[in-house]
Amino acid sequence: MKIYFQKLIPDAVIPTRATRQSAGFDLSLCGQQPVTIQPGETVMIHTGVAVVLPEGTAGMVYPRSGLASKHGLALANCVGVIDSDYRGELMVPLYNHSGEAYTVSPGERVAQMVVTPVLLPEVEEIPAGKQLPESERGTGGFGSTGKTAGGENAK
To answer: Does the domain formed by 4-117 have CATH 2.70.40.10?
Structure first.
């Protein structure tokens, strides 16, 4: 499998994996100027790159763990989804959860994109009032399976 990156801006950094076994391709701030994110603020970070992903895959964008644990930065949308037919610039919405401003330097790695297979099912509507197929769980949700493995609802 191959993926392709294209620089949309000359000083963009082509995403790479830190090691051969790293799952994520690191996405970096593009440009010549640092970007400061104030407490409680969301800033769109430009990467300056586009990607071509194989059909049947998606790029899942996650925060880098060091930015979150050391500086309180996370993706504003929790996880970004890059569809295989998207050809625009990869952007990273970073939110500052901390009480201090954080400055992202040009070239700094801010997120990681993991390429994953996706299912592309056809959709068929079940008419209102028609019984849905039975399942072990039924309509139970939000804690209905208990707190512990083999807990109060285990069979």
So the answer is: yes
Amino acid of residue 84: S
Q: What are phi and psi of 68, to 5 degrees?
A: -70, -50
Domain extents for the chain? 4-117
- Give the Å distances, CA to CA, from 97 to 17, 29, 71, 75, 94: 26, 19, 8, 10, 10
- In tens, the pLDDT along 91-135 reads 999 999 999 999 999 999 999 999 999 999 999 999 999 999 988
Structure tokens at 40: 């409680």
Identify any residues that bridge with 49 across adjacent strands, giving them in sequence order: 7
User: Would the annotation count 82 as a binding residue?
Assistant: yes
77 in a labelled binding site: yes
Residue 3 annotated as part of some ligand binding site: no
Model's pTM, two decimal places? 0.84
Instruction: Confirm whether residue 28 is marked as ligand binding.
Output: no
66 is in an annotated binding site: yes
